[in-house]
From TrEMBL:
Residues 226-290 form the DUF58 domain. This is DUF58 domain-containing protein. Keywords: Membrane, Transmembrane, Transmembrane helix. The chain crosses the membrane at residues 31-52, 58-78. InterPro entries: DUF58. Pfam families: DUF58 (PF01882). The lineage of its organism: Bacteria, Bacillati, Actinomycetota, Actinomycetes, Bifidobacteriales.
Amino acid sequence: MNNSISRYVRQRSRGHILQNVRQAASTVSPLGWSTLIAAMLTAALFVAWQWVEMLACAIVFAVTFTTAVVLSFGNTALEATLDVASTRAHIGQTVNVQAVVSNPNTRPTASAAADLPITQSAVIPSDSTTMHKHFHVPSLVARQSTLITVQLCADRRAIITIGPLSVRRGDPFGLMRREQRLTESLTLYVHPQICVLHGRQSGIPRDFEGTPSRDVVDDDLDFHGLRQYEYGDDVRNVHWASTAKTGTLMLSRFVATRRSDSSLVLDTDMQGYTSADQFETAVSVFASIGVHWLTEHRTVFTQAGGLRARPRTPTEFLDACCGIKLSEHRTTDLAREAMHRSPRTSLLCFVISPAWSIDDVRRLAVATPMSAQCIIVQLSSTGERGVRMLPECALVTIGSLEDIPHISGVLQ
């Protein structure tokens, strides 16, 4: 029994010692290991060949390494919080990132260098960039804290990962490096620019699974109220019980229900857009239509490159739009993919690049079912604006995001 306890204690002690050794070894940088090995090697050469030059080199290397170890000492037992006023921003907005670094212990801490990485997504996945914000954390007495503010300019649509915040304590020679991670990372969504649309709800009327609208009609499924008969009204809608009671012809009124499952598809083919700004305009059009439909409480299925989502709220949809990127390969059958995800859709809207020819547009529209309305919004490379009613669909041509309100009637 006593032998087992002693063996257990020895194993725990050995494991604790090994852990401390590994932790200490991890603080030595590659340059530090090179300096230590150089000191040992030159010392060995002096012992073997009695070269005074080797002794001088060994002393320089050893003193440098020892000085680096001494300078890296210091209490860095810090805590920190990372916060932003809002995790969502619009293009052009300045975002203040606040880091509160505190000393929760009774002993003062040493000064340290803090590093805050900021990774910003790009339209092309390989172009994502990471920059580092470096700042100085002063020595803190017991229970003291310091506030550090970093300003970010949201200059384009992106998903920005902020953090994690870490502090680093080392020496001027770069031989020792002690790094401590203080926080987790935050995600900031920079929403695309959108244009507010106004209009009435659309969809297939008198559907059992339809969504009630704000309109009141004479013929539907959901009873709303009564009104007096007017010349030309359909007598099939006469409410005979109320007519007999009042002695006046009364007609039933209904809340209009419309099947409003909608599919919104964005063409993300890299070869179709002449510039990143043109693609950003397409994303803004895509986002504007999606937000408008979600505000009308529609069921919306969205598709844009790798994005396949059914957002519940406009904010959720805009968050997803922040991560839309260009694709290297063109999807030739956008309609089939959209109908596969939403076979009961009553309205399909495609936002496409200027590279699509009129024959491509017709083939895309023909692939949609006859029971669904089809609207195709195409960006114009010349800036022209117009609406063309084809037998298969409505083709809307726009030159910029500001053209959307002028053709909002077609989007209804």
